[in-house]
Design goal:
Length: 465
């Protein structure tokens, strides 16, 4: 409590929704913030799930936004959201006015004007973190620690004009330089910022991690602590593998590849500002804060001890397979495909190719059935491939490790356990990144593929059945 000694280093500390789900968790968070004077800047998510099957406040806000868009004015939407904040606020005896203000802000959301429905959705969602940051600042104050809520508008967190998938604009970092970190704790809401036109925009889901990373870079932090509900980042998702090995240290780029391919514990885009600022990240458990957690650092600070650091799997992909003889001789084939993707506003993730074959892998979240249909028709008409197959049932497995570069035969060791268990591999991609191998499998095989590869590289592991 208080500031009996001067703070030395500056740490940005982000707490995920699971760490702020109710008053009991918020109490732990207050203690964590108070336990280290260097924890100067706090980033909050919206209250998350309290138990399996619970609904995150962000999802309640999405329901509220959708109801508003259909003209449904049932007060239950506000009531369901407000009770989450009320329970936390009452646990800390925050002044009535703080809770009344939260309720008023929730009620006024439908009355504001928005340029379009997408911006309305962004503004509703962002209030999960905004209101939680205001409330958390009040909880800290009630607990005897000076704290101030910082509005991302005041801080100059500027985002692109993509209301629900925004990216940070470079000017943000100049704006953040002007922020003075003094005696009081600064509490920032995660997940959102403002466009140059002054409208709220959010990052993609899970984006509070990105805000923490932006602040860590912009405020020149010595460490970015990311508190969640697991003791460490594990070598495989603990929902797939029983008691996976914790990773004590890993590199920025290992984390980037693993979070991209399914390690949801840390948002995949969030690594980038931390790399740009060379700020190490420490993922820790709010419920076990004395454990060391996982440290994510520059390459030069890690000496790999094993070939594989982690194995991730994700089902969020779909693929388009094209076959045409003499594809290798066709000038402009890929260009024509890219033009069609551009026409439909679709980006692709990977494009592995063979002499007569091409597979294009997409993030399925950006595609609806109508777009897929039109895009495939266009490709068929324009390029006339011998085979065109849309594969909706597509998963990517990523096996990642800095240690792979020095080890011969890793591919064989990845493929063998899959072959032994009859799992078909549709694609292997090792080309560009020398620290990862990517495999394409059917969705239904993805979890098993992760398990068997894990078992092979981390022997004696118990497997969940
Ligand atoms: N390799 C992994 N190591 C640790 N956790 C993982 C991994 N892969 C997926 N997870 C999941 O990530 C969850 C934490 O992320 P998230 O739910 O976004 O937390 P928060 O609400 O704290 O932001 C864990 O509970 C775990 O189920
Ligand atoms: N609350 C937002 C943003 C976020 O980052 O949340 P969390 O830290 O709980 O993953 C979401 O649910 O997407």
């Amino acid at each position: 409590m208080g500031t009996s000694r001067e703070w030395k280093l500056m740490k940005v500390v982000k707490f995920g929704g699971s760490s702020l789900a109710d008053a009991a968790h918020v109490e732990k968070v207050v203690q964590i913030v108070q336990a280290d004077l260097d924890r100067k800047v706090v980033v909050t998510s919206a209250p998350g799930k309290r138990f399996a099957g619970d609904i995150k406040v962000t999802d309640l806000l999405i329901k509220y936004a959708n109801a508003t868009l259909t003209g449904d004015t049932d007060p239950k939407y506000v009531a369901d959201i407000f009770t989450r904040y009320e329970e936390i606020g009452q646990g800390f005896n925050v002044p009535e006015a703080v809770l009344a203000d939260i309720k008023a802000k929730l009620e006024s959301l439908p009355k504001q004007s928005y340029p379009n429905d997408d911006y309305l959705m962004a503004a509703f969602k962002a209030h999960g973190e905004r209101l939680n940051a205001e409330l958390f600042a009040a909880c800290l104050t009630q607990s005897g620690t000076k704290a101030r809520f910082v509005d991302p508008k005041e801080a100059g967190i500027l985002l692109s004009d993509d209301p629900n998938q925004a990216s940070v604009l470079e000017e943000t970092y100049d704006n953040l330089k002007k922020i003075k970190v003094g005696d009081e704790k600064l509490v920032f809401p995660g997940f959102f910022g403002f466009t140059k036109n002054g409208y709220i925009a959010t990052f993609a889901r899970g984006g509070s991690d990105i805000t923490g990373s932006i602040l860590a870079r912009g405020l020149n932090a010595s460490l970015y602590e990311n508190f969640t509900d697991v003791d460490a980042i594990f070598a495989a998702n603990p929902k797939i593998v029983d008691h996976p090995l914790p990773i004590t240290k890993m590199t920025f780029r290992e984390m980037r590849e693993l979070s991209y391919a399914g390690f949801s514990v840390f948002n995949d885009e969030a690594i980038i500002p931390a790399i740009q600022g060379q700020v190490p990240i420490n993922v820790k458990n709010t419920n076990n804060p004395d454990l060391p957690g996982t440290l994510i650092v520059p390459e030069k600070d890690v000496t790999p001890t094993r070939p594989v650091t982690g194995i991730a799997g994700s089902n969020r992909f779909a693929a388009l397979y094209l076959h045409r003889y003499l594809l290798n001789k066709q000038v402009g084939f890929t260009l024509k495909i890219l033009n069609i993707l551009y026409k439909y506003g679709v980006s692709y993730e990977h494009m592995p190719s063979g002499i007569d074959d091409l597979t294009i892998i997409f993030d399925r979240n950006q595609l609806d059935t109508d777009t897929i249909h039109k895009m495939c028709n266009d490709i068929q008409k324009t390029l006339n491939p011998d085979t065109l197959e849309w594969i909706d049932d597509y998963a990517i497995i990523m096996v990642v490790g800095e240690g792979m570069r020095a080890k011969i035969g890793t591919i064989e060791n990845i493929i063998r356990p899959l072959a032994e268990h009859g799992i078909a591999v549709h694609m292997i991609n090792q080309g560009a990144s020398r620290i990862s191998i990517m495999l394409g499998t059917r969705e239904s095989d993805a979890d098993d593929a992760v398990k068997y590869i894990y078992q092979h590289f981390f022997s004696n592991a118990k497997l969940k059945v």
